[in-house]
Design a protein that fits this description.
Strands 8-7-6-9-10-11-12 form a seven-stranded parallel β-sheet. A five-stranded parallel β-sheet has the order 2-1-3-4-5. It has two domains: 112 residues, Rossmann fold; 177 residues, Rossmann fold, CATH 3.40.50.720. The N terminus is likely disordered. α1 packs parallel to α12 and α5 packs across α7. The chain is built from twelve helices and twelve strands. It is an alpha/beta fold. The relative contact order is 0.14. Bound molecules: 2-keto-D-gluconic acid (8YV). The site of 2-keto-D-gluconic acid has 9 residues, from loops.
């Protein structure tokens, strides 16, 4: 990693939808360059790219080898969000670039969203809201929901920080919880399934909260989805890539599962018309962490990581693949 301590202001690229909170907090200690879209990469002149030492980015920008290799002096990529499957961390590690993300500050908000989405999906609250607004209630009461939280076993796909926060909420609701993760966590008392399909056969509800990327691509496939049975419910707040979207649509259409609640999509913000046409799905626009409070804390952490790095300190939240041991 490059030495710090020079008096020259570091050049930082702020790449993604404009965010005053980030540009203001970075302040005039940096020479800031702002670009909004992936396609703007081509507009970054080589002379400017040469000077860039830090990048603040969101998950909407693909930070792959082609991008990273444009910046020979790059030292740090600070991404907004806990997920960093949009970043080639292997390339970053090999080129001594530190990658940081924003875990912890969004854990409880995202776990709240998971529970909200799960209950909304099972008990049809969005449909029921539409029922009231349409005036149908004056004709007859809303039909009883087929789904209930009372007879479910939830299988968590992923048992990281957010998975644990979801499990705590489900425990309080007296709902049995099991989980699938590559390795069992000795600190977790719930039953661990090394194989997702085995877990899917034993439960009726999946809450997907595992990192995206090639290792988990279409992990929740047609076999897993259909194993849940006709009372099956899938809630996904991780990445659209983790669930086979076409297989999910088929299962929802045919009734081989009951319903799904989605906050993420394979090609977001584009959502397949086939999903929008279904009445047994609740569709959210990737808002699990999206409160003013939590997004503010995430913005702050993006900035703190960059500021600390260029102040010669250890940034608070590097990803495990690019640890910073001492400076
Ligand atoms: C995003 C998320 O950061 O933390 C994550 O991994 O998916 C979200 O909180 C947010 O959607 C950024 O646009």
């Amino acid at each position: 990693m490059a030495a710090t301590g020079s008096t020259e202001k570091p050049d930082v690229l702020v790449f993604g939808p404009p965010k005053l909170t980030i540009t203001k907090a970075l302040g005039d200690g940096f020479v800031q360059h702002t670009f909004e879209n992936q396609r703007d990469l081509g507009r970054i002149a080589p002379a400017m790219a040469e000077r860039i030492r830090g990048i603040a980015v969101t998950e909407l920008i693909r930070v792959d080898q082609a991008m990273l290799s444009k910046f020979p002096k790059l030292e740090i990529v600070s991404t907004f969000g806990v997920g960093y499957d949009h970043i080639d961390v292997g390339y970053a590690r090999d080129h001594k670039i530190v990658v940081t993300h924003t875990p912890d500050v969004l854990t409880e908000e995202t776990a709240d969203a998971a529970l909200g989405l799960l209950i909304c999906t099972v008990r049809e609250y969005v449909k029921a809201d539409r029922y009231v607004r349409s005036g149908l209630w004056t004709n007859q009461p809303y039909p009883l929901t087929v789904g209930s939280m009372r007879d479910r076993t939830v299988g968590l796909v992923g048992m990281g920080r957010i998975g644990k926060a979801i499990a705590r909420r489900l425990e309080a609701m007296k709902i049995p919880v099991v989980y699938h993760a590559r390795r069992a966590d000795p600190n977790v008392l719930h039953r661990h399934y090394p194989k997702l399909l085995d877990m899917a056969k034993a439960v009726d509800t999946l809450v997907v909260m595992t990192p995206g990327g090639s290792a988990t691509s279409k992990l929740v496939n047609a076999d897993v989805i259909n194993a849940l049975g006709p009372n099956g419910v899938i809630v996904n707040l991780s990445r659209g890539s983790v669930v086979d979207e076409e297989a999910l649509i088929e299962a929802l259409k045919s009734g081989s599962i009951l319903a799904a609640g989605l906050d993420v999509y394979a090609n977001e913000p584009v959502v397949p018309e086939a999903l929008k046409a279904l009445s047994n799905v609740v569709l959210l626009p990737h808002i699990a962490s999206a409160s003013v409070l939590t997004r503010g804390a995430m913005d702050q952490l993006v900035v703190e990581n960059i500021k600390d790095w260029f102040a010669g300190k250890i940034p608070p939240t590097p990803v495990p693949e690019t640890p910073v041991k001492g400076r």
